[in-house]
Amino acid sequence: MAIQRKANVHILDGNQAAAIAAMMSRVQVIAAYPITPQTPLTEQLSRYVEQGELQAEYVAVESEHSAMAVCTSASLVGARTFTATSSHGLAYMHEMLHWAAGARLPIVLACVNRAIGAPWNVLNDQQDSISQRDTGWIQIYCRNNQEIMDTIIQAYRIAEQVFVPVMVCYDGYILSHTEMPVDVPIQEEVDRYLPSYQPHTVLDPANPKNYNLVTLANPRVGVDGKLCHGYMELRYLLQEALQNSKEVIVKSGKEFNQLFGRDYANVFWEDRNEDAEITIVAMGSLAMEAIVAADMLREQGIKVGVLGLRVFRPFPKSEVVQALRKSKLIVVFDKNISYGSEGATCSEIKSALYGTYINAAIRNFIVGLGGRDIKARELVEATKKAIASLKETVVNPDYPEWICEI
Amino acid sequence: MGTRDCNHICDESSPGIGEAGRTGEWRTLMPVIDDKKCTASKLNKPTCFLCWLYCPEAVITKGIPPLINLEYCKGCGICLQVCPVQAIVMIHEEKIAD
Amino acid sequence: MKANAVNLIEQEWILPGNRTCPGCALSLAYRHTLKALEGQCIVTVPASCATVLHGMYPITAVNVPCVNTPFASTGASATGLVAGLKALGKKGITVLAFAGDGGTHDIGIQSLSGAAERQMDFIYICYDNEGYMNTGNQRSGSTPLGAVSGTTPILGKQQYQKDITAIMEAHGIPYVATCSASYPLDLYEKVKKARTIEGTRFLHVHTPCPPGWLFPFSDTIKFGEMAVETGLVVLYEIENGIFRLTSHSESMALRGGNLQPVREYFISQGRFKTITEEQIDELQDWVNARWKHCLHRATNL
User: What is the fold, at CATH topology level, of the domain defined by B18-96?
Assistant: First the structure.
């Protein structure tokens, strides 16, 4: 049951929503390096700190690699930390992303999705965050600015329970620089939802511990005589934490609903999927465009539903299978490409369906790379093309189709 | 029994002597202090202690006489080099048995 | 009271039975650094021989809190420790970054420079064994001219060392100093002084490496002393822009300023087996010129 509360709607762009959410989460250390299109977010946070609205250390680092190193070390002394980046910045952070997850530090990172060079391109696609898929971070994608605000607040609640860092991803420009109405929570509500950070470890001279030492392949007995992990056991625990985090993500979403009246007890968004024969799958703001496309296709008598992926890591396999159980055709739109293979979300869907009774055809389209405009009309055309292809063959093609003019 | 009982979720290490084992076993030459020559021992007062100061392993005590922890002394021989009165000699390990 | 071997704190923060090679100067330098800080510190260490000293999970050979951090990130990691402690209102803990020359002169210079420009409140110690010794001795920005290494295997290094202390001084930080593991009391005094100063403090410590430089384990102190006596290493500190010679460099200057010739230092180390007489002469000229500059700059002679 959603509670009755007074709306506090502001017109905000995605970066402003993210900055307010970080402030309301009472982050204590922020380290960031400017990169388009994340820049207004980090500027806004430095303004909050300089104005005294946010009691935090703002560190204007000299690189994204350093931004994440500041976050990992600050987190190890017990501070709640935040950073934001895009594209090349995220790529430059890559090494430290592994260390944040490997040391189980609940850092939250806003990734304003942008294409990666070469060649230079500052516009949106999701190649940057998808390229960091295997770093051990939880990844949650937002469809609109309200979700950006709500997801960042939820991200701390999730991260600090499972001790896994969370990457909150939202599309550059399409969300980061586009204003829309956002219901802003009040601080007392956020404080009630988000207790202060209780670290699993703290660097302290009174109880000296040493973190991230060389670790052997096999377990080793510690000074207290207890058998401690080998490298592989530590890796297993990270995988287990991500596996278990799905439940915490759903629970945190439910609890969010109880306080704020917006329900996030889901790992993806569904639209008219109950009776759909065809399901369109998309992630991020593209999922909103897919709903418009479904409207248009429904008007033409085609039973289309939408699956808007929200949580990409951990990937919600069983939930996806459940949602797609009636589909005869699954059309997956990816704003990324695993070169030589296909779109990353398409691979996930296929992997989830393997060995189930679902024998739907799958068609993958690569769209919107480097800011290429993708409208509902084009999603409609692609879906129709996918339907027509079923007459030729039901075998899934080896490679995706690209919506471009080559 | 698995490794969960250690309750670590990340690589968290505690201080311990002999982390690399009994490093005294690395030694081929063993330092021996001649108390008749050692300044601190001879004068029976806290003085000199250069062997203690320069030992990279912290295995020499700042006592009278200074004692070498042979369980961990790697036998580098720095103490012999820094001793101003040549009170330290290095002897071959196999001679200990003799 | 000045520190001496008799009055120096007896407590140890480096534990016996660790993984350093016999005669390791880094171990000696680290030992006296932690004594000067009396263990009231949090340490960050990048990939280096100090990682080896720290040991293998779940046991560590040091009795201070530490985080081991990727190679390029030491300055940023120290920044994070400082920022985190400040945000939480924790006082009285010194943040210490302890990195090798590869981690300082080469891969770590960006994060160190950034942190120093921000005047982050930590002590950064570069222990300089003049190469990538942890990976088996490859050339670094601090390997001297003429030294053979894994990546200068036949000809020896053709370039001079990077003067990291001068680079750090140019950041306008309140304290920079050079030290040698062979002069542990001078190192101790400098760390102790640095502890009382706010802002970024940088100390460079010359740490001879027996297996990398190819000399006997017992001669670590001797080679460190020779480096100072020849002027290849000059012990000084610059506090708020005031340059002072210290320790043995100061006494050499006061005794007329004569240096020992560099030749013996080079020909008695295996790593200089291919050094030429011309290179030795060249290095002698370089040493003489720098020593003259130091004597000219020193305010305490």
Answer: Alpha-Beta Plaits (3.30.70)
